[in-house]
Structures are given as structure tokens and as C-alpha cells.
Write a structure and sequence with these properties.
Blueprint (H helix, E strand, L loop, with lengths): L1 E6 L1 E2 L7 E2 L42 E5 L7 E7 L17 H7 L2 E5 L4 H5 L11 H16 L5 E11 L1 H11 L9 E5 L9 H14 L13 H19 L17 H6 L8 E6 L4 H4 L7 H16 L5 H13 L4 H25 L5 E6 L25 H5 L3 H20 L10 E4 L4 E3 L3 H5 L7
Parallel strand pairs: 5-6, 5-7, 7-8, 8-9, 9-10, 10-11
Antiparallel strand pairs: 1-4, 2-3, 4-6, 11-12
Helix pairs in contact: 3-4, 5-6, 9-10, 10-11
Length: 459
């Protein structure tokens, strides 16, 4: 059974979502439009099948339900897609939940949420809200809790899962404290982050957006044609990159929905009682760093020293020690490999380790390393996307190098995600033990890349 394009909320531009009732009399046979986004973004070409066609600002808050025939009291998996908070949609074929639902006897829900400036601009000074996209996620999960029994789901066993920005969105929703009564668990695939904007950073993004839109009054953003808003949004990303990073449309501390960064919130028990699975891929930054030439060692030392100075407030001389650390860990002096490993560890592995450590004081917490490697990209960020769904069309089969071992690994992942939804136990011991998803799946004493980090506490 598939029910597509179900409206779960409505919202004015920059406004909070308002829950909509479910109209069971309507047909639901077509995916709803995606949230407005740049349709020619290079981000959409990094992994297969990310292209989006139809978008609609006023009709994008929809979700889709996939359930086995005669479903009754089944566990529920609710998916939030990735895309750097600016692209993506629940309608993309790789996210079709039909196979996962049928094979694992679960109900699968996939969700659209607002993206870019429409979802993550701090619009409070112009009469709107902040964290509209986070509010959408909470609203969608409330809708699922209210209505999933009609589709054969068990409202007491709702587990949300998301990859990349979808995982980050889920973590920020957990940090809000608003999911404790909605979720029986959460699965975060390569979505852990130390980044949560403050008011100052968010204001810089808003001011730059106003400037790039050619406006004099920020309130005019509320009526700017959506295509012009998306164009200005893209221009803004390039300008603020050196100041706020690669994802300027991002959840923030607004003291209404989110009161603290994710790590501090989880340490304080914001998601008390919500079991968590949080893991990473083996070479997260391979997708972004690519085949960049190897820098000379002295240049790499300076680069890492500057990074550490901004990150940990250390002296630039620390770069020499860290380069030596990674050369030993990798058993290689290849400076391109050292930079990729260091960059991935600090941007992805360190936040994941800290999140796992923070939550395990408040609920059972599990971690994993997804080390399956594609033929040209290795175990890069996003390589895991098709495995939980069992969908390898649109070029995913070639991208991941699918073979019988890959098909078996997909079944192993789906078994684990469904078991977690069913029993809050994915089938391996809690952290610091870690499941290694690869050609030879096994449980390790520790997540290998968490153990590789050169500092005990990076937060």
C-alpha cells in the first residue's frame, strides 16, 4: 500500500507549520511537490538520483506512507532526506519505502520539510520564526503519531531516521526536547554536527540575503517571488562561506524551539529516554575533497595548524604533531590522504563520537561504521543512502559497486533498522562497541575512526 503526497501541515512563508487533519476520502496516488530549491545545484550531482522537478512553496509540506498489505500494529520508520538543508525531496526514487516496508514488515513514512531560507532563515525580525524546517519535522512526527494507526502502524514504536542534513535536522529536533513523547528511537546516518547557529551568524546570513536580493527593507523577503528568493539564497551561500561555512541555512539557537547546541542539549538530557543509533561512513570527505592534488607537507602542516587554531584554540605548531599522528594511523605519508582523513574526522567523526557519548547517559545508544566502498568514491558520505531502502536504480548500483555482497549488506542494514524500530535494539551491543557494516559485517570493540581521533574530547 502506498499513500503519496499527504498534506501534514500548512504554513505561511517563514511561519510555523499548522497541523492538518487527515482526509481519508481523498486519493493519494501522486507525490507532493518538493520544497523550493535551486534545480541546477551542483550538490544535486554529487550522488545519483538527486534531481528534483516540481516544487511549490505552498504545497510542499507533505509525507508519504508505505505499508505492507493488511498491516496492523507494525513498527514505523520515518525518513528525513539529506541535501545540505537546501536540496532534496521525499519523492526521489531511492527513498521509495515500498521494498523496505514489504521485506521488513514495517510502515515507512518519508517527509518533505522546508529548505534553504524558507526553512532555516532567522525571520523573527521580520515577523516570522526561526527553525521553520525543524518545526516542520516535529509537526510531521506529531501527524504520524496521530494518524499512523490508520495505515497499520504502531504509534508506540515510531523511529525517525535521516541521513546527512536529514540526520542533522533530526538531532536538532531531539535537542528541542519536543520529540520525547513522539519517538521510540532515532537513527542518524552521517548527520552529527557541532554546528548550531547563534543569533549573530544567523543575522549575517539574513543581511546578506537581503543585499543579494536587491532589497532595502528585510520585510520585503516575505513577499519576494520565490524564484528570486532562491536565486538570492544561492548567491548568499557563496558570499558567507568563509564566515559561516558550507551550510548557511542551518538550525539555530532561538530560545524557543532550540535552547542550546545539540551536544549541550543532549548532555543535559533533552532527549532523555530516546534510544539512538548514530554512525558514519569510512571516508566521509572523499565525496567533497575528491582527487585534489597532494599538498606539500609544510603547507599541510600550516593548513591543519590554522584549522586547529580556530577549532581548538591551539598553537599552529600543533599541526606538525597532528600530521605525524595521521601518518602513523594511515601508515602513509600521502598528504592528500592525511588531509582527507583529518578533515573527515574533525567534521564528521568527532561530532558523532561526542553525540554518542552525550546521549548514552540518558538512553541506550549504539554506533556503527559503514565502510562499504564504491569503485570511484570509496566509503564516501552518502554511499549508504540506498542500502536501508534496497533501491539501487538511477545509477546507484554502479556508484556503490553493487554485487551479491552489497545486496547482503543491504539486507543486514534493513534488518538492523527494522529491529531497532521493533525492539529499540539494532542487534549489536551499545556504545562503545560498534557495528562495522562492510563486506564482512562484524562487531568491533570500538568505532575505529572514533578511536583514531587525536584528542580525547573534541566538542
Amino acid at each position: 500500500m502506498r499513500a503519496l503526497g499527504i498534506p501534514y501541515a500548512r504554513a505561511a512563508r517563514f511561519g510555523a507549520p499548522e497541523l492538518l487533519p487527515f482526509d481519508a476520502a481523498r486519493p493519494y496516488d501522486t507525490f507532493g511537490p518538493a520544497a523550493p530549491q535551486p534545480l541546477d545545484s551542483p550538490l544535486g550531482e554529487i550522488v545519483p538520483g538527486m534531481g528534483v522537478q516540481a516544487t511549490d512553496e505552498h504545497a510542499c509540506l507533505t509525507l508519504n506512507v508505505f505499508a505492507p498489505d493488511d498491516a496492523r500494529d507494525l513498527p514505523v520508520l520515518v525518513w528525513f532526506h539529506g541535501g545540505s538543508f537546501v536540496i532534496g525531496a521525499s519523492s526521489q526514487p531511492v527513498y521509495d519505502g515500498s521494498f523496505l516496508a514489504r521485506e521488513q514488515q514495517v510502515v515507512v513514512v518519508s517527509v518533505n520539510y522546508r529548505l534553504g531560507a524558507l526553512g532555516f532563515l532567522d525571520a523573527r525580525p521580520i515577523g516570522g520564526t526561526a527553525n521553520a524546517g525543524v518545526r516542520d519535522a516535529v509537526c510531521a512526527l506529531q501527524w504520524v503519531l496521530d494518524h499512523i494507526e490508520q495505515f497499520g502502524g504502531d504509534p508506540a514504536r515510531i523511529v525517525a531516521f535521516g541521513e546527512s542534513a536529514g540526520g542533522g535536522l533530526l538531532l536538532h529536533a531531539l535537542a528541542s526536547g519536543r520529540l520525547n513523547d513522539l519517538l521510540a528511537g532515532a537513527i542518524v546516518q552521517s548527520g552529527a554536527t557541532f554546528t548550531t547557529f547563534d543569533t549573530e551568524r544567523a543575522a549575517l546570513v539574513r543581511e546578506t540575503l537581503v543585499q543579494e536580493a536587491g532589497l532595502t527593507d528585510p520585510a520585503e523577503l516575505c513577499t519576494l517571488p520565490v524564484d528570486a528568493l532562491i536565486e538570492a539564497q544561492t548567491a548568499t551561500m557563496k558570499i558567507v562561506l568563509p564566515t559561516v561555512g558550507m551550510m548557511p541555512y542551518h538550525p539555530m539557537v532561538d530560545d524557543e524551539v532550540i535552547h542550546a547546541r545539540v551536544l549541550e542539549a543532549l548532555r543535559g538530557g533533552a532527549a532523555r529516554g530516546v534510544p539512538l543509533v548514530c554512525g558514519t561512513t569510512g571516508d566521509e570527505m572523499a565525496l567533497f575533497v575528491g582527487q585534489a592534488p597532494a599538498p606539500p607537507r609544510d603547507k599541510l602542516v600550516r593548513r591543519i595548524g590554522r584549522y586547529l587554531g580556530a577549532y581548538l584554540n591551539t598553537d599552529e605548531a600543533e599541526g606538525e604533531k597532528v600530521v605525524d599522528h595521521y601518518a602513523r594511523a594511515l601508515r602513509s605519508d600521502d598528504t592528500a590522504a592525511i588531509w582527507r582523513a583529518f578533515f573527515g574526522d574533525f567534521e564528521m567523526q568527532a561530532p558523532a563520537r561526542a553525540i554518542v557519548d552525550a546521549q548514552r547517559d540518558h538512553a541506550p545508544t549504539y554506533t556503527y561504521l559503514f565502510e562499504w566502498g564504491g569503485p570511484d568514491v570509496g566509503s564516501c558520505h552518502g554511499i549508504d543512502i540506498p542500502f536501508p531502502f534496497g533501491n539501487f536504480g538511477d545509477g546507484w548500483d554502479a556508484f556503490v559497486g553493487l554485487d551479491d555482497a552489497g545486496r547482503a549488506l543491504g539486507r543486514r542494514v534493513r534488518d538492523a533498522w527494522a529491529a531497532f524500530a521493533r525492539t529499540a535494539d539494532p542487534g549489536w551491543p551499545v556504545s562503545p562497541r560498534a557495528m562495522i557494516f562492510g563486506r564482512d559485517p562484524h562487531v568491533a570493540a570500538k568505532h575505529p575512526l572514533f578511536a583514531r581521533l587525536p584528542y580525547d574530547d573534541i566538542s
